[in-house]
Amino acid sequence: MTGTYLGMPSFPRAAETSTRDVRLRANLRRATGTIRAKRDRAVAELDDWARLRAAGAAVKDRTLRHLDHYLVQLEESVTRAGGTVHWAADAAEANRIVTGLVLATGEREVVKVKSMATQETGLNGALAAAGIRAYETDLAELIVQLGGDLPSHILVPAIHRNRSEIRDIFRSRMADWGLPAPEGLTDSPADLAEAARLHLREKFLRAKVAVSGANFAVAETGTLVVVESEGNGRMCLTLPETLISVVGIEKVVPTWQDLEIFLQLLPRSSTAERMNPYTSMWTGTTDGDGPRTFHLVLLDNGRTDTLADTIGRRALRCIRCSACLNVCPVYERAGGHAYGSPYPGPIGAVLTPQLRGLASPLEESLPFASTLCGACFEACPVAIDIPEILVHLRERVVEGGPVTVRGTRTVIKPAKRHGTERAVMRAASWAFDHPRALRRGQRLLARTRGLHPRRLPGPGRTWSDSRDLPDIPPESFRDWWDRTRGGTGRAGGTS
Amino acid sequence: MRVGLFVTCVNDTLYPHTGRAAITLLERLGVHVDFPAEQSCCGQPLFNSGYRHRTEPLLRRYATAFRDHDYIVTPSGSCAAMVRDNYPRIAAKAAAEGRDAVVPRAVTEAAARTYELTEFLIDILGVTDVGAYYPHTVTYHPTCHGLRMLGLGDRPRRLLEHVEGLELRELPGAEECCGFGGTFAVKNPAVSAAMGADKARAVTATGAGAVCTVDNSCLLHLGGILAREGSPVRPVHIAEILAGTKDDPAPPLPAPGTTRTARTGGAR
Prior knowledge:
CATH topology of the domain at 46-301 in chain A: Rossmann fold
Structural class of chain A: alpha/beta
CATH class of the domain at 46-301 in chain A: Alpha Beta
Structural class of chain B: alpha/beta
Largest sheet of chain A: 6 strands, parallel
Radius of gyration of chain A: 26 Å
Order of helices and strands of chain B: EHHEHHEHHEHEHHEHHEHEH
Oligomer: heterodimer
Helix content of chain B: 40-55%
Strand order of the largest sheet of chain A: 1-10-7-4-2-3
Number of strands of chain A: 12
CATH architecture of the domain at 46-301 in chain A: 3-Layer(aba) Sandwich
């Protein structure tokens, strides 16, 4: 796995390889199983969880409906507080703005707070191309960066790695990025944390520029909020002279009072904590306290297009807690990399095809990467009905229909690869609407049942490679009913 | 009380004994059941694959076939969930898109009268002890749509706990999906098989003689994997357990290594 999402294969193809990775499966099973149990306990403590969840969904929906208003209010508030606001229509523009801002400081290195938005834009690559080194300071992001790897989880990007793999990465790669790993490093959690602390501290104390994202941006005051566990965020947000925050436009909340809801929902859903250890909030700049220059880059990158879809837009409620990943049996088997995006798991399967558009076989395959078991919807703290959005997007893939691309309403054609399936579905729909034809089919199946192979040829092999076929009964239910009840069962018949 | 059986296309074609068991059970409890022959598939395979428009004739068909029934009972959690959760939405969308052949009111009314079998037994008939006898160890897998869309809760378990002779074995990780997911099973075969293998391992480790669900579609997948792996555990629908009595017992569990329909007696 190298550090790029370009040219990723479709989900089923990627999963074909990853499901065979025994170590990956074991790492994920252990990690997601542990956090699932902890989260259940943390959520059960609150007797008003269902109401908090409904409130969170309602605040997000209302804010998204009036996003134009709240974004302008946010810009005014941030500007008034001494910050500078930039608007980025897409990833390239966001990267261009950030690169320009860093170069203007004269610095050639930045420290980074864990940020999904900059993973989405591929900022580190863009900075590297301009000769700027970006240091990830979140422990898991550090592991991913040192390993030349990609994140595979929203909250725990290195969830696919176990302790001994992390020790090996620290030993072999830390020296290339700064302070080497201590001699005789073991794989005990305390030793690994200490090695990371020493490696990172040097960077915190030296860095003049920091790049972050934000969990929330409060429109009424222009306050940004970062919620974290390790304290690396607090270091980055307070020590450097210049702070640049790249924030998706859906992160805005109208008022401080709204934070009351989300600061209960988010920690319990993501890390299973009542309150996360560090919550940093800053409003513009303050003389003698923290960065002297603050830039806010507001990122669209497909969000406005997503907002135009009345069903799909509910995915924009997401507060990136990753509860849906932790309960997803598909994610647990396939791993995060198979989703080909920094947003893996169920939320990724609905976000990525909308943010990027149904651009390639990967995006087209993502809405199908679910059994629709509903565990994600049940776990979601802002009640995103992910299965409903998945089915909605499947319709866009197989039948085409209206979508919005860079602000323009357009109609996309059905995906070519589904042509055969479309014909089968049309035939099935006809047969189901003509029960007499269906009955003839059933009888044919029953009459030929001695001839059926135990394993299917062609596309049917995907079924019979791992499962025996059922025996075909000699008589369908309808034929049995007619034979024994004399066909009295037509609607309007006896009861 | 007019009760119509919505047998579902999977049961009609592959598991007719489940439909027969539902009839036996309901009639033993004094319910007259009829089977409107116009009924067909609920359309779930089409809908979940993205072919919403193709399901519209099936909504109309369902609402018409069961228009005179007070209750529509189906031995499938998944198909009941399709009707109850998705039919009203599909009909409303069709109307909003100008296709008025699907009458939202008729569809929504039919959806509201639809009950999964165990729901009907407990909520409408008010029985938990149906007088069943099943002298086997059984583990129960709550299928996803029954669990999360219908909210069946512990209804199936309560019924099983009252079956004479039945010993219920706990299934670890019971609420995790078996990996079937309709067309998911063929579109994402690697993940589906991995999930199914994990579920099959958990089922086999219970030492039960049978694994029971409210959905034969999940058992089609799980039973296929159990049979392929040579597991001694047999898949069985809850209707078949509840239909058996001491006087008229359920057929014995078939020998390991055979798939389930073999026990219906038809020569192969």
